[in-house]
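Lecture notes, unit on protein representations.

Consider one protein chain, 540 amino acids long.
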Amino acid sequence: MFNPLRRIDAPAETLLPVGKTMSHPLEKSPGKGRPAKGAIASYPQPLCLRNAESARLSTLPYADLAAFTDWLMHGTKEGQRLICLFALPEEDASHRLIAALADDRKGVLYSMSTELSGPYPSLAARLPQAHLFERILHEELGLVPEGHPWLKPARFSHTDGPHVGDMEFYQVEGEEVHEVGVGPVHAGVIEAGHFRFQCLGEEVLHLEISLGYHHRGVDALLREAGTPLSPRMLPLMEVVAGDSTIAHAWAFCSLYETFTDTFASPQGQVLRSLALELERLANHTGDLGAISGDAGFFPVPSYCGRLRGDWLNATAVLCGNRFGRGFVRPGGCGFSVDKRLVDELKKRIADTARDVQGATRLLWHSNSFLARISDIGGLERADAEAVGLVGVAARACGLPRDVRRTHPLPGVPIPPSIPLQALGDVHARAYQRQQEIAESVSYCQRILETFLHSPDGEACKPVKGPMKENRIAFALVEGWRGEVCHAAVTGAGNTFKHYSIVDPSVHNWIGLALVLRGQQISDFPLCNKSFNLSYCGHDL
């Protein structure tokens, strides 16, 4: 019999001890840095890093494109996942393509590079996780991935390509097949995005999602901001995706700290963790209300709208801003806490958690609500893994992807467990949020209990100096939607030669398109809300 409260607990992850280096997944030949005889691939040993650990760019190995592709394919086959793919222009008009894979079982990141001097065989043709990265590279740098299965605009229009919203959409032919277009302008306060459905009657055969209508040019703004301590830099990071202020600001600060050999203060790291969980609690609570509203069960949205505000107000107690702007700073946090503030936060969290539990209990005891969200918008674990889903959407499919546990930052308390679901449908994504709310409340209470024993200490350490030149690093933070990834390469004069931001929505929009196949078109609002992805986090 189906249990609506079914849960899977993830096994404890094996984390690499601090100070140890990770060996190459294939045994090396003596002194060569290549796989031993009989290995299934021949590529250099990749650069191995921890989360928010930097290395000299000169240590990042080159491989020819075939070996580079073999490395990507072998790594993903072994359970690693592509977290970032970007390119650096070289002096001879070629580009250095750089990829990073995350190994969640070993708690490390692998990186390698190759040279591109013209069109190249598409990686996405063999590795679906690369499809959006290649589209972004095409429109930003003009790199042409030959054989790409879906080379259309991602964030803006390439000079040689079609315009956003004005390109050819995939079409299904048939006497009774019809097409439904939704957006880009929507009712209510929502950003622009176009959804093109190919339907047979009410059944969705294919959904194509077109974004990029509100491309803001974040990369250009980062270059204009100049040095990391420019007055414009952190405010810009805080609005990459406004509902993920803490996650993106923390990822940026982690990179800046590793490039300057600055260790964030212990109290600052724990306070960042507290703010991140409050951000998670506010959004998960709001999402449960929104999912309930789209299912036609209206008592809960009224409660959750108010309770989301209570979580935001708790963040305002920390720093004076409900979204946490101005809180995370290089070296720690811009505000400290004392015993009085700790006591107030403990009371607020306990009171709000009690009310959230009371409100959401209505959901799981309503047969009509459970019937509406069960077996709707399901996604198999293998498909979720193939396209590289992260965060809530991945965990609802049974994938234990949570960088708080698998790639923890130094000095950050590790959450006790990773709740998982099995079915990957709207019910699973909704109940995943319910369980994560409970875990986050427990996590916040544990953090505040720790502060009662040591309420003093600096919240922020001074940054030691300018960034080291020609270094590379990747920073991962588990935002409320999923993994936020920032990747950077430093240049001369305390500047960035390159900076990439990968919001979890970059990985997950394709998941929404997949779950609509075979569904009724009327299920779209419910499926869409169960993912609740960011337009601005994608468009940048």
